[in-house]
Amino acid sequence: MIKVSIHITLKEGVLDPQGKAVAGSLTTLGFAGVEDVRVGKLIELTINDTDNVEARVEEMCAKLLANPVIENYRYTIEEGIVQ
Amino acid sequence: MIKVSIHITLKEGVLDPQGKAVAGSLTTLGFAGVEDVRVGKLIELTINDTDNVEARVEEMCAKLLANPVIENYRYTIEEGIVQ
């Protein structure tokens, strides 16, 4: 059983209206000094087939989970989770 | 200038239809062994007011960024980013 955490973020320069909205709300609520907010995705997978995990996760990200045109992704693989 | 990464995840037991859809799509695409998928949010803040950052981020999460009824949050604060 392997747990994979995938962080998907918008590339630099890609407009993030959701982040802008959050930044505006934080300022309205009185939180000063918030310069920039970017909103991304965090996908946690549990995989029970441990062969060649890294290549498969890479392919999952490129094919389905992220949009490589506008998004970057990185992942961490936690092996050895006993169930 | 401080960078804060906030990870927001659904609590255990809360239904995640988006995760279920992703799991179904991965299986349809031929990725075997995907047992569970949970989709959360990753919010990256840049803050230029360095006073008492941890308490303020905690308050931002509780008041706006996360829904404490169904979501957990954790954050990492990276200090000392020079601009």
Order of helices and strands of chain A: EHEHE
Q: What is the overall number of helices of chain A? A: 2
Distance between the termini of chain A: 7 Å
* Coarse morphology of chain A: elongated
Classified in CATH, the superfamily of chain A is: Phosphoribosylformylglycinamidine synthase subunit PurS
Main CATH class of chain A: Alpha Beta
Mean pLDDT of chain A: 93
The biggest sheet of chain A, with number of strands, parallel, antiparallel or mixed sense and barrel status, is: 3 strands, antiparallel
- Protein chain pair with the most extensive contact, residues per chain: A-B, 34 and 34 residues
Which strand order do you get reading across the main beta sheet of chain A?
2-1-3
Strand content of chain A: 35-45%
Helicity of chain A, in percent?
Answer: 25-40%
The second-level CATH architecture of chain A is 2-Layer Sandwich
Using only CA atoms, what is the Rg of chain A? 16 Å
Low-confidence stretches of chain A: none
How is the topology of this model organized?
2 copies of one chain form a homodimer.
Chain A: E1 2-10, H1 17-28, E2 34-47, H2 53-65, E3 71-78
Antiparallel strand pairs in A: 1-2, 1-3
